[in-house]
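Thread: "does anyone have the structure for this chain?"

Original post by V.I.:
We have the sequence but no experimental structure in hand. Need at least a predicted one for the grant figures.
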Amino acid sequence: MSDKMKEVLVKLKDVTVSFHKQSIIDDVSFEIFADQIVTLIGPNGAGKTTLLKLILGILRPDSGTVWKKDGLKIGYVPQKLNLPRTIPLTVERFLCLEGRHKRDSLEDVLSATGAAELLSRSIHPLSGGEMQRVMLARTLLKQPELLVLDEPAQGLDPVGEEQFYALLTRLNQTKHCAILMVSHDLHVVMANTHRVLCLNHHICCSGSPDEIADLPDYHTLFGKDSALAFYRHHHDHAHLPDGSICHVD
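Reply from O.Q.:
Generated one for you, tokens below.
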């Protein structure tokens, strides 16, 4: 780990959140370092979005602490954005909704996300992949130290998903921003993820996806330079239908 990646941006310690006496997040602890890519996976209802809201400051924990570096700039890319189709809106106007920016700045962030040709286009007919790149460009205008993305590849086909993950890797390397991303897939994650967290109300397991990235079968399936990788889970317990946990060997 580089010296910069040793800098802690966010630290959760013993965090618990409950709604209507039902545990959503239970005793969760982890850190996000500068320049690090962290992928958060888990089944529906596991608490992934709640965890993002804690980091974004939208929610507060019932117990435990959520610490963030002083002055930390966080950029958030939502899963989708519903804009009224009756309002004429170009990509340029959309990028300036939260403040005015020079055209050069808009062109720079769109170029960084591979969407330079979209500046003068209407935002409404954009494809899912194009819209994701535009929303990412809008976030980059804030020069964030941490990018938070909620299931950014949902709705994209496999090729679009791989291209978007490759884009995030480039941004991590060129913009030097950490990335926290929620993935809708329990097994396929970014190949360049530094750490995968498997959440089911608590952290069931964590690790890196490089365990199988060098296997010949993986290369045959995705190609040697693929932006995708599989994550192999190592749980020492099982979640029973009633919500209880059964520990296994």
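V.I.: this helps a lot. The radius of gyration is 19 Å.
O.Q.: and Helices lie at 48-56, 91-95, 103-112, 128-140, 158-174, 216-222.
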